[in-house]
């Protein structure tokens, strides 16, 4: 099926499509890199700075790179972990440093892929700031990278979400500042041409802009994202795999994975909870193409913050949620019954492409809620 669809496009046709797309995107990047950084920097915003009170309280938005180093850093964490809730009562001025790293990692057991990453993980780190914060984003691109990289954060109000100021060559560094105006759970991704390739290679993550009043407390928070990987060779072929342009355009990927690889949430890396606890999953889709029908087998989401909106009232008692590429959802659920709960995209064919993970709940049995009849 996949092969016949690919053959439907004569090679000359897709080469031309590729050339045209490259020209367009190259023009966009060229237009971008001539723009002077720091034009239109956000106005000064001071905060009470619970993270580093002495620094943040007195810190207006920096006027230039020289002032950035002294800023306190926003908390960030590698998947599936989430930085702790923010207990500050006011806004702060913070710095987020992200490094573009191209690195070969496991895509599945025995299968390797050269991922393009933020900070060496797929997805990139989860960043946590507060509504009203002034955030300086610094992007460095590790020396030796084969491509320029950048960032577009959907939490940004401003052209390209920051991409116009962060096209960063190998060995280089860029920065911009934005004001986190709207609370929500937002995807970020590399926005260097060809953008879908950079996303499919692993350059995406999420930033949580907490509402000023915070979120309802839960016992455990996890960070999970879905993406496709478009390899030339079929699913499961051992060794180092190569990216396939035609597959990206046609869209049926060989791999659909949570947190960057088959089995990222299995074995010794499962998500864990105990009965009686509440669990929150910050779930997003890097894509670049497929919408997820996110579902946890054996559970019902008590609260669903659809599309990552934290200001609309959450839906209650939901089985499966649609999450578009470049979109997110926050789901809360209590775990009452011990057992193994499976995270899936309920487009279930994708289980066989890797989209499966596990939450293990330990605790005393609850025969009043769930038991076999013999
Ligand atoms: Cu990139």
Give the topology, please.
Layout: H1 2-7, H2 11-33, H3 53-57, E1 76-77, E2 93-108, E3 111-118, E4 126-130, E5 134-141, E6 152-153, E7 173-179, E8 184-189, H4 195-200, E9 204-210, E10 220-229, E11 239-241, H5 245-250, E12 255-258, E13 271-274, E14 277-287, E15 292-297, E16 301-305, E17 315-318, E18 320-323, E19 327-335, E20 339-345, E21 356-362
Parallel strand pairs: 2-5, 3-11, 4-9, 10-14, 13-21
Antiparallel strand pairs: 1-4, 2-3, 5-7, 6-8, 8-9, 10-12, 14-19, 15-18, 15-20, 16-17, 16-19, 20-21
Copper (II) ion (CU) binds near residues 100, 147, 149 and 203.
Write a structural description.
The radius of gyration is 21 Å and the shape is globular. It folds into two domains: 74-210, Cupredoxins -  blue copper proteins (Immunoglobulin-like, Sandwich); 220-362, Immunoglobulin-like (Sandwich). By secondary structure, the chain is mainly beta. Strand 2 and strand 3 (111-118) form a beta hairpin. It is built from five helices and 21 strands. The strands form four sheets. The protein has a six-stranded mixed β-sheet. A five-stranded mixed β-sheet has the order 1-4-9-8-6, with no helix packed on it. Strands 7-5-2-3-11 form a five-stranded mixed β-sheet, with no helix packed on it. Copper (II) ion (CU) binds next to loops. Copper (II) ion binds next to loops.
């Amino acid at each position: 099926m996949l092969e016949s669809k690919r053959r439907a496009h004569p090679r000359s046709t897709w080469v031309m499509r590729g050339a045209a797309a490259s020209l367009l995107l190259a023009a966009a990047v060229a237009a971008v890199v001539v723009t002077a950084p720091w034009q239109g920097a956000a106005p000064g915003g001071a905060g009470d700075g619970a993270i580093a009170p002495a620094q943040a309280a007195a810190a207006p938005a920096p006027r230039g790179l020289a002032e950035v180093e002294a800023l306190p850093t926003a908390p960030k964490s590698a998947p599936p972990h989430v930085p702790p809730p923010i207990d500050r009562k006011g806004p702060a001025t913070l710095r987020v440093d992200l490094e573009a790293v191209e690195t070969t990692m496991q895509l599945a057991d025995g299968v390797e892929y050269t991922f393009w990453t933020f900070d060496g993980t797929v997805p990139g780190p989860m960043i946590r700031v507060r509504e009203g914060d002034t955030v300086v984003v610094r992007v460095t691109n590790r020396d030796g990278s084969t491509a320029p990289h950048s960032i577009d954060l959907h939490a940004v109000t401003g052209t390209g979400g920051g991409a116009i100021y962060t096209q960063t060559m190998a060995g280089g560094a860029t920065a911009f500042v934005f004001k986190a105006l709207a609370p929500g759970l937002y995807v970020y991704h590399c926005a260097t041409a060809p953008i879908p390739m950079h996303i499919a290679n692993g350059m995406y993550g999420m930033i949580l802009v907490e509402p000023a009043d915070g979120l309802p407390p839960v016992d455990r928070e996890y960070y999970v994202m879905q993406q496709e990987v478009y390899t030339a060779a079929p699913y499961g072929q051992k060794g180092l795999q190569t990216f396939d342009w035609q597959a990206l355009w046609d869209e049926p990927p060989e791999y659909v994975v949570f947190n960057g690889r088959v089995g990222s949430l299995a074995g010794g890396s499962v998500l864990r909870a105990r009965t009686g606890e509440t669990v929150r999953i910050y779930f997003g889709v890097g894509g670049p193409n497929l919408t997820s029908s996110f579902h946890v087998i054996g559970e019902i989401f008590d609260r669903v913050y659809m599309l990552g909106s934290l200001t609309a009232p959450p839906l209650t008692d939901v089985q499966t949620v649609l999450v578009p590429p470049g979109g997110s959802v926050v789901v809360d659920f209590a775990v009452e019954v011990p057992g193994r709960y499976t995270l899936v995209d309920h487009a279930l064919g994708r289980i066989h492409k890797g989209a499966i993970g596990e939450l293990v709940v330990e605790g005393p049995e609850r025969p009043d809620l769930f038991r076999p009849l013999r």
